[in-house]
Amino acid sequence: MSNVVSLKKLAGYDLSGYSLEGSDLSNAQLAQATLRGANLAGADLSGADLSGADLTGANLSGADLYQANLSGARMNGANLSHSDCTSANLNGCALVGAQLRQCKMAGSSLSDADLNAADFGESDLSSANLCSARLSGAVFDKANLNRANLSRAKLFGARLQGAKLRNALLKDADLTSARLKGADLSEAQMSGIKMFKADLSHSTLTNAKLESASLRGARLSGADLQGADFNGANLSHCSLTRANFTNASLQHSNLWGARISGSDFTHADLSSTNLLATGLNKKFALAEFPDIVFSEQTQWDDQQIRRNSSSLAHTQSIESEAAKRGFFSRIFGARLR
């Protein structure tokens, strides 16, 4: 196996446990090869065909995978930290519990990939395609996901604290119980997104599009929501304290039971908005925000219906759903042990 040239034409071969550290495997034909636990640290695999390969537990740290084809590859538990996967094809691959910290993945494609519990912390995934990817429990802390496509992705309990998601596409994605504290979602496309019990406190969503989004019970305390579009969104029982809704549109949205103390609604559009049990009555709103927009269908909290008027059954339904989501997170975690 010392002849590196021969290694470039080993499609379907079993190279499990081999040390190929630092090898030149550029444009190698390794489709369907078995490389379980192999050491490929620092190897040049640029342009290589590893489609359908088994790289379970392999060490690819610092490897060059520029434009490599890893579609359908099995890479569960693999280490790709500090690797260069720029413009790589990882469609349909399995990277459950994989280590991808500080990885270069700009323009890469991971659609329909199984990335549950993978760690992408501080990685560059700008303009990456993660459409319909499974990302439950995945970590994206401080990652760059600007302009990334996460539409229909499943991100139950994912961690995206301090992540950059400017102009990202998140239509119909599921971020139930996800943690996005301090994340930048400016101008992100988030229509139809599910963010039940998600933590978006101190995040930035200026000019984001959240039409028909479901944010029930989410935390948006201190969030910058200037110019955001919440038309038809469900914000019931949300924590919106000290949030900035300046120039935001909340037409036909539901804020029933939301906590809104200290929030700024300057120039906000509250036409047909449900504000019952928020403590915001018409008299106070117009005195505090004279330029607020509203309609005859706006439901003010004129009778001072407070959150504690919500039925016990409603509260229990929220807790039950949170417990159910937590159950799925535990299931995904158990797979890794």
Report on this model:
The protein folds into two domains: 1-99, 3 Solenoid (Pectate Lyase C-like); 117-337, Pectate Lyase C-like, CATH 2.160.20. It is built from three helices and no strands. It has helices at 4-7, 282-288, 312-336. Residues 1-5 and 307-312 have low confidence and may be disordered.
> Structural class, from secondary structure content?
little secondary structure
Summed up, the helix count is 3
Helix content: 10-25%
Q: Whole-Å distance between the termini?
A: 34 Å
- Number of distinct beta strands: 0
Low-confidence stretches: 1-5, 307-312
Which homologous superfamily in CATH is the superfamily of the largest domain? E3 ubiquitin-protein ligase SopA
Do you know the CATH architecture of the largest domain? 3 Solenoid
**Multimeric state of these chains?**
single chain
Task: Give structural attributes.
Pectate Lyase C-like; 11% helix; single chain; disordered N terminus; 3 helices; little secondary structure; 337 residues; 2 domains
Please outline what is shown here.
With 337 residues, this protein is largely without helices or strands. Helix content is 11%, strand content 0%.
